[in-house]
Design brief:
Layout lengths: L12 H4 L6 H21 L2 H27 L7 H18 L5 H19 L9 H20 L12 E2 L3 E3 L2 E3 L2 H24 L1 H11 L1 H6 L4 H28 L1 E2 L6 H14 L4 H24 L6 H21 L4 H15 L5
Antiparallel strand pairs: 1-4, 2-3
Helix pairs in contact: 3-7, 3-8, 3-10, 3-11, 3-12, 4-5, 4-6, 4-10, 5-10, 8-10, 11-12, 12-13, 12-14
Length: 354
């Protein structure tokens, strides 16, 4: 009975169009953010920050960007990791060549460079769609991987092809400890999630969804496919570029081009399929699922006295991911986010069946 809307009336247009119209949702989100800022730094260990929480937040940012493109605009992409690599190498070169720049500006510029590259590789979407577009973005993945591996300027002429970063300093704050890294990534994730939520509620998001549902009908009612599709590629790549910069500077610290290979692109696609396409919350669910399943496969059998080898755990991970993708595509195409929404609807109607 606590999750009911009785007595919650809207008297202004602003209150009717707010992000979270139900009071209980607003309090829940505020409590969750307060818990993330105040309780998690106290409760979590350094290992959890490095291995779980920070990668989860960064992958969620990248998954949000991919969801804007695939879930909201209906444009298939298999090259998200390539655009993450663009953001990572762009931020690396900006830091070493323009050390006076604030890292927040570096993040924005890296995202902007990735957005330009994404818009260029999004041009084929104006003529092709479906599997052909997926192959086109896959070509972008391979081309960008080759470019960063062969053009030495991007790695500052490193003999090994790998790059390493120093600690981040901005506004007198040195982001070096796991807690500092977590708080910075958390702040970036909240800002980008809020921006994405407002974006999909505006005319740009409505143009994306109209293009996704039927691009010919969208063009008839005045939506330009050129603007809708290229803006979706640009915004998606912007998010991927920022996630790539955070992945390199905050999570890895040192990387080579293989850190952003096709496997990462496929994992991001799995995240939005399992988490829920067309849902920002689904990006967080999918990122959590992809990170937790391998850990559970390694730990749970040991709890029951049935240890399994690393190779078997890897094979089981692939089998489970594949089975769940097929399951969600058949049973619940909108993923875990839809199951969460159904649970909320049940609470709002309880105890009445209608």
């Amino acid at each position: 009975m606590l999750y009911r809307e009785n007595g919650q009336f809207k008297t202004t247009y602003g209150s009717d169009q707010q992000l979270l119209p139900i009071t209980q949702d607003r309090w829940f989100v505020l409590a969750l953010i307060a818990f993330a800022y105040l309780a998690v730094p106290v409760l979590a260990s350094d290992y959890m920050f490095r291995a779980l929480i920070i990668p989860f937040l960064i992958l969620a940012i990248a998954a949000i960007g991919l969801n804007l493109l695939v879930g909201y605009c209906g444009q298939i992409s298999l090259g998200t990791a390539a655009f993450m690599a663009v953001g990572a190498y762009a931020s690396y070169n900006l830091v070493i060549r323009l050390p006076q720049l604030n890292f927040v500006i570096v993040l924005a510029l890296a995202g902007g460079i990735a957005a330009l590259v994404g818009a260029v590789f999004g041009v084929p979407s104006l003529r092709i769609k479906g599997l052909y577009l997926a192959v086109s973005t896959l070509a972008a993945q391979f081309f960008i991987d080759w470019m960063f591996a062969r053009v030495k300027w991007f790695t500052d002429y490193s003999s090994s092809g790998s790059v390493s970063t120093a600690s981040i300093e901005m506004f007198g704050w040195t982001i070096e400890s796991p807690i500092d890294k977590y708080l910075f990534v958390l702040s970036v994730a909240i800002v980008l999630t809020l921006a994405a939520k407002n974006l999909v509620r505006g005319h740009i998001g409505r143009a994306w969804m109209a293009t996704r549902d039927m691009d010919v009908a969208a063009e008839v009612i005045g939506i330009r496919p050129l603007t809708a599709k290229l803006s979706a590629f640009a915004v998606s790549s912007f998010y991927a570029g920022i996630a790539g910069a955070l992945w390199g500077f905050i999570h890895l610290g040192a990387w080579e081009p293989l850190a952003f290979n096709i496997n990462l692109s496929l994992n991001l696609l799995f995240m939005i399929i399992i988490g829920g396409m067309g849902s920002l919350l689904g990006a967080y669910f999918g990122a959590a699922f992809i990170l937790l399943v391998p850990i559970l496969l390694n730990q749970v059998p040991g709890w029951f006295g049935v240890p399994i080898s690393t190779a078997l755990a890897s094979h089981l991970e692939s089998m489970i991911f594949g089975s769940l993708i097929v399951f969600f595509l058949i049973v619940e195409p909108h993923g875990l986010a839809r199951l969460w929404a159904i649970g909320k609807e049940k609470l709002r109607l309880w105890p009445f069946p209608h």
